[in-house]
Amino acid sequence: MTRRVLPYRTPSEDVVVAEDWHLITPDGDVTAPEALPDWDYRMNLRLSRVVRVDLDRARTESALPTDAPLMLSAVWTATGSSLSGPAQHLRLPSTGTVPVTIDFELRGADLGGLLLLDTALVLAERRSHARPSSPRRAGSILWSDRRALRLQGDAPQFPMAVIDFSLTSFPDNAAWHLQISGGLESATMGSLLLLVNERNTVTAAAFENAGKPRPTDRLVLSAVYADTARLMVEHALSHEDFSEYSDYPDDSLGSTMLSLFDKLFPDQSIPDIRLRQRQSPSLFASDLQAAVKIFEVS
């Protein structure tokens, strides 16, 4: 086990006692598991934890003056979307041992893959006349920990972004665009990107309301899901060596495609699906609509 050595004094690990992360759900609070098998991008996540900080010891053991401002910071990173951001920054009082509650909500559309939750006790302001052995820069980390939550929904999960199509080569009035790059051996999260046109207010609003969709939002999201599934299936079928006997690395594009085929066409072979797509494209399109259950209300 490696330990990071910082160029300044830091307090003992037991100066901060961090409780488990909890998921806040309509049915109550539950300890966050290692994985959420039923998660999909329409599910926002509200997370909370209590952290107790012995402020006097934290300052003393870091060679900080008693009035040095400290802050508890929480930051999230989603490997699936390659997005990250500050979840919450809480300024701490001057003395004593204080319980601090971190509580925030993350949009499901921003997530995917592995969700990393970093909590840190940091110096809140720069100190111009600090001793050489003590922290001096704003943001200097005195204590930190990291927890991971794997998001494993059945729906295809990949990075997405809302952008203005007029600033791109895509048609200004298109509602969305799925980019697929790399071979079937490539990592899924680096090969897929769903772009939503912010100029198409109906589609952009549907993704914004994905956590609590209105009837119109449900129709839009269903159409996007159906079109995305179609593009992914067609892309996979275009590779002649793609079959149910293919062996792809975990979390690769090929592995994701195989899972999608298993879900959409559980009783059909890939050669049969490829043959139907080529001989009767219109029938294949109808089969795919039926498989994704387009416009059905779950």
Structural account:
By secondary structure, the protein is of the alpha+beta class. It folds into two domains: 13-151, Immunoglobulins (Immunoglobulin-like), CATH 2.60.40; 160-292, no CATH class. Helices cover 26% and strands 29% of the residues. It is built from seven helices and 13 strands. The chain has helices at 55-61, 188-191, 201-208, 215-237, 253-264, 270-279, 281-292; strands spanning 16-18, 22-25, 28-31, 35-36, 45-54, 70-78, 83-91, 97-106, 114-123, 141-151, 160-163, 176-180, 192-197. Strands 1, 2, 3, 5 and 8 form a five-stranded antiparallel beta sheet that branches. α4 packs across α5 and α4 packs across α7 (281-292). The longest helix has 23 residues, at 215-237. It is elongated, with a radius of gyration of 24 Å. The model has no long low-confidence stretch (mean pLDDT 87).
Low-confidence segments = none
- The H-and-E topology, N to C, reads as EEEEEHEEEEEEEHEHHHHH
Give the overall shape: elongated
Counting DSSP H or I runs of 4 or more residues, the number of helices is 7
CATH class of the largest domain: Mainly Beta
Which class best fits the helix and strand makeup? alpha+beta
Average pLDDT, to the nearest integer?
Answer: 87
How would a textbook summarize the main sheet?
5 strands, antiparallel
CATH fold-level label of the largest domain: Immunoglobulin-like
Distance between the termini: 47 Å
The whole-angstrom Rg is 24 Å
CATH architecture of the largest domain: Sandwich
- What is the subunit arrangement here? single chain
CATH homologous superfamily label of the largest domain: Immunoglobulins
